[in-house]
Amino acid sequence: MESMVKKLRWNLGSGPSRKRKKKDIQKERWFLANGRIFLKELIADCDGKSIPILSFSSDQILQATNNFDSSCLVSREALYKWYRGIIKDKSYMIKKFIEDRVIERGVGEAYNEIVLSARMSNHSNFLRLFGCCFEFSFPVFVFEDAEYGALNWQGHIMVNGEGSILPWSVRLKIGKEIANDVTYLHMAFPKIIIHRDINPTTIFLDKNWTAKLSNFSLSVTLPEGKSRIEIEGDQGTFGFGISLLNVLTGKPSYSCTGPDESYECITDYAKYLYENGKLDEVIDLIMIEEGITSTQRLQVEACVVLALSCCKGRDEDKPKMIQVAKELKRIERIEQSLDVTSGFLKPEMLEDGSSMVKWTKKFGIKIEIMVILSFCITGFLIALLFG
Predict the structure, then answer these.
(1) What number of other Cβ atoms are within 10 A of residue 318's Cβ?
(2) What digits encode the pLDDT tens for the residues 300-324?
(3) Which residues does 92 contact at the CB level (< 8 Å), separation at least 6?
(4) What average pLDDT does the chain have?
(5) CB atoms near residue 167 (< 10 Å)
(6) What are the coiled-coil residue ranges (predicted)?
(7) Is the pLDDT of residue 115 over 80?
(8) Cα–Cα–Cα angle for 243, 143, 96, nearest 5°?
(9) Other CB atoms closer than 10 Å to residue 282's CB: what's the count?
(10) Which of the chain's termini has less CB crowding within 10 Å, N or C?
(11) Sign of torsion, CA 230 234 236 238?
(12) pLDDT for the residue numbered 50
């Protein structure tokens, strides 16, 4: 922040007597105009707390992205583009808004993005904002580099332009970490933050497969004391449920089905399989081809049931995000919690009377059958070897 203040003072102190190029004057005007709006929004948001942000020059940004060349392009969405570039020997993700499209919707969204991203910079599961550049007609943002980039709409990562599958352990980890993120937004501050744009393309993965939530441009901060607001779009839980289904199934939110080229919503698809006892068919086919254990299959089915509960129509019917986060932790512990002698969940998992009890009633029989079959197979193999 100190570097930004110094730069503002330098620009304000440059009088008309200085001979400057027209291009430099325009950059200074942009810097002052953008910086004025940003500082106003940041001061209102930070409430006296220090939020360190670096100031990058337009020369640094242009050199890092080769003048925003397509060779440095990582991904493109409706309102912005992501580039990867190196500044002072360090790799960054550089976010450039598509100016004409942002102006159509309102420039406040971009400043909303930088203010809230700055506030979340110390949380390990949000894409960290390092700084910004005000020397363009519209601010350019510099974030940490997430080596695997953003997920695509099917919940896969892109490698050499093609979707690459994620193992089940990583998919479950993504769901758990993003659930924790949304819970944090809903509970960590006096004023609740509603993200409103949770989808696979706003979820990045770093080299350790850690999920990083990004894009606060559509977010809404509720008045203190309010728990919800009448707004169009996602309130948080619904968007998370859809994204979890994307990651589980490997399908986009809407898929073209049938000869009439009609579109089917992923919630309708998953709900149909659930109501007809075919939950095992919801699993990403690519994941099945790679191999999935019986326990992992049960975890997937439990996650689908949880995701569908997040997508219910009425807010009062949806679980709170803190309940969702806790449930995903329980689902993650299913494998460790199976009693090897009985095949049922251990008693300590059921002490709190949670929804895991309901889950056990629904799927416990499958666990029991799985254990019985394993004993039968083991006995058969012993008979072959020693009989």
Answers:
(1) 20
(2) 989 999 999 999 888 888 999 999 9
(3) 64, 84, 85, 86, 130, 142, 143, 144, 145
(4) 76
(5) 14
(6) none
(7) yes
(8) 85
(9) 23
(10) C
(11) positive
(12) 57
Q: What is the pLDDT of residue 341?
A: 41
The domain spans of the chain are 2-144, 157-332, 338-387
Q: Is the pLDDT of residue 252 over 70?
A: yes
Apex 205 CA angle, 204 and 211, nearest 5: 80
CA distances from 386 to 374, 379, 381 (A): 18, 11, 9
Q: H or E element: which one contains 92? A: strand 90-97
Of the candidates 45, 59, 69, 197, the residue annotated as catalytic is 197
CA distance 341 to 30: 69
User: Residue 383 class from Cβ within 10 Å (0-12 exposed, 13-18 middle, 19+ buried)?
Assistant: exposed
Query: What pLDDT sits at residue 118?
Result: 87
CA distance linking residue 278 with residue 286, whole number of Å: 18
Torsional class of 202: left (φ above 0), alpha (ψ -120 to 50), beta (otherwise): alpha
The answer to whether domain 2-144 has CATH 3.30.200.20 is: yes
Tell me if residue 24 is catalytic.
Answer: no
Q: How does 60-97 read in b/e, with b if 16+ C-beta sit within 10 Å?
A: bbbebbeebeeebebbebebbbbbbbebeeeebbbbbb
Distances 258 to 75, 253, 274, 281 between C-alpha atoms, Å: 30, 16, 20, 18
Higher pLDDT, 242 or 264: 242
* 120 vs 8 pLDDT, higher one: 120
pLDDT tens for each residue of 269-301: 899 888 888 887 888 887 777 778 888 888 998
